[in-house]
Amino acid sequence: MQNKALAAVLLAALAGAALVASPGARAQAPIVIKFSHVVAPDTPKGRAAERFKLLAEQMTRGRVKVEVYPNSQLYRDREELEALQLGAVQMLAPSLAKFSPLGVKEFEAFDLPYIFPSKAALYAVTEGRIGRSLLRKLEPKGITGLAYWDNGFKVMSANKPLLQPSDLRGVRMRIQASKVLDVQMRTLGAQPVALAFSETTPALRDGVVEGTENTPSNMYTQRMHETQRHLTVSNHGYLGYAVIVNKKFWDGLPAGIRRNLERAMREATAYEKTIAQRTNEAALEAIRRAGTTTVHTLTPQQQAEWRRAMQPVYAQMEERIGKDVVQAIRRQVAASPAP
């Protein structure tokens, strides 16, 4: 554990889990699923978590109670996976970059720049053999993967226009803790600073970092745009999540309850996909209307320049991620319908 305070919280939660969350502990009490995440409720992930709660409680006729904790109310980025493995929470939806510290570096492929030209190509990977194979790699870590949730393609922001790769030279950019994203920023000449999501807005406000990359919905709901004068619709990278549960808890559920929860997750996932793009488009328009941020859209020529500048990331990261994984994704993308 990183600190004594978190250890105390986890021990208390584990003690409660033995009495409340364990499926067989109290026959008449509802099975409690604590679903923790780090983003705002009014984001694709936040809204899908609430939809899953509604569906799960309806489909199990009250046998299951889902408690959703948004905005890092329980745990921050670096803490939540450990909390799940210890059973202090039962469900998370971390970004795919979070699995590398567990030793499952193959998920870093999702951070490679411009690897997915469209949502159709993305879904061909996440909903097919490759996506299922990656989720199975989490099982030895005590984690069961249930679904992939989509946020969307990322934009970049700073207090100066970012229209060509050289504009990033020397800029302190907040990133998720991801080796691929670190190399991406260094390749562009920026200075990457890995910060927890909950720390990003204060860091932008206080000048600890000068810019960031994220989806419009995350930027708007966390009010990052209020301290960023320029935003570039670069769509250079993807941000997605895996909905995961504590494997011991999941395997211990009654089979009928588990089937109903799987059905609830399928419906919540379908809902999440329908709102992800729409939510980001609305957030980008809201940022425009706020008047604090100039929104730039790259021309095809500028976009091509960004792609060329980021290509060296592949050569540096393929061995770390697994060349076979990267190549399998590229083959699947090439076989997908054109955007």
From TrEMBL:
KW Transport (keyword) present: yes
Family per similarity comment: Belongs to the bacterial solute-binding protein 7 family.
Signal peptide range: 1-27
Pfam families linked to this entry: DctP
Domain of life: Bacteria
Keywords: Signal, Transport
Keyword check for Transport: yes
Protein name: TRAP transporter substrate-binding protein
